[in-house]
Design brief:
Layout: H1 3-17, H2 23-30, E1 35-40, E2 55-61, H3 65-70, H4 72-76, E3 82-84, E4 99-105, H5 114-124, E5 125-136, H6 144-160, H7 170-176, E6 180-188, E7 198-205
Parallel strand pairs: 1-2, 1-4, 2-3, 4-5
Antiparallel strand pairs: 5-7, 6-7
C-alpha cells in the first residue's frame, strides 16, 4: 500500500462516512443486531454509536491501521466491548460458527473478492445467523441512464477511493453466496449523486 492508501484515504473515508445524513441509515442497519457480532470493513467506527442493547460484543475486521486509530474515540465510548481481530474480510481468522450476527456497511464495493468475503462471513456465522447489510452498487435495472454513468465513472472512482466499485450488485452477490434475503430496501441516498448512492439495506440469513 502506498502513501495515499495508507495515510490519506482513511481520512477521506472517515470524513465521507461520517456525514450526518448517513446516521439514520446506520441506525436502521444496526437495528436488531444481537449477541456476538463480527463487523467487516469496520472503517473508523461510525456504526459504534448505533449498536443496540442486544449486542454483547463486536469483533472488528479492518485492514487500515490508521482507520483503526481514527476509530479510537468511538471505540472507547462504546457501550459494548469492541476489539480488532482481523485485517482481511476474505480470510477471517475465526472458527466456524463463531458469531451470532454480522454487519457490513459500504464494504462489499471495495473488497477485491467480495464473494470470498461473503463465504467467509457465512462460515463464521452460527447456523441461522443474520448478516445486516447496507451497500451501494449497481442502480436498479429500470434506471439505465444511471447505470451507464456508473460504468463511465467506475474507473476513476476505483482509483480515488481504494478500489470502490459502483457496479457491483450486492443483493445478487449475497444470494450467490448462499444467503437468503429476509428484508430489503433499495433506494437512492438523499444528497448523494445517484451513480454513487444506489443503496441496498436489509438482512440476510445464513444457512
Amino acid at each position: 500500500m502506498g502513501f495515499y492508501a495508507e495515510r490519506v484515504l482513511p481520512r477521506i473515508i472517515n470524513a465521507a462516512c461520517g456525514v450526518k445524513a448517513a446516521q439514520p441509515l446506520r441506525q436502521r442497519v444496526c437495528a436488531g443486531l444481537t449477541g456476538d457480532v463480527v463487523e467487516i470493513g469496520f472503517g473508523t467506527g461510525h456504526n459504534v454509536p448505533f449498536y443496540p442493547a442486544g449486542v454483547t460484543g463486536v469483533t472488528a475486521v479492518e485492514p487500515s491501521d490508521l482507520g483503526w486509530r481514527l476509530a479510537g474515540e468511538r471505540v472507547r465510548a462504546a457501550s459494548v466491548p469492541v476489539r480488532r481481530a482481523g485485517l482481511d474480510g476474505q480470510s477471517l481468522p475465526f472458527e466456524d460458527d463463531s458469531f451470532d450476527a454480522a454487519l457490513s456497511t459500504w464494504t462489499l464495493c471495495t473488497i477485491p473478492d467480495a464473494g470470498a468475503a461473503l463465504r467467509e462471513v457465512q462460515r463464521v456465522l452460527k447456523p441461522g445467523g443474520t448478516l445486516h447489510f447496507l451497500e451501494h452498487g449497481l442502480a436498479p435495472a429500470e434506471d439505465e441512464n444511471v447505470r451507464r454513468w456508473q460504468h463511465r465513472l467506475e474507473p476513476v472512482n476505483k482509483r480515488l477511493f481504494g478500489g470502490c466499485h459502483l457496479t457491483r450488485p450486492p443483493v445478487d452477490m449475497l444470494t450467490a453466496a448462499g444467503f437468503t434475503i429476509t428484508a430489503l430496501d433499495v433506494f437512492y441516498e438523499e444528497g448523494t449523486p445517484k451513480p454513487m448512492g444506489a443503496d441496498s439495506l436489509g438482512t440476510a440469513l445464513s444457512p
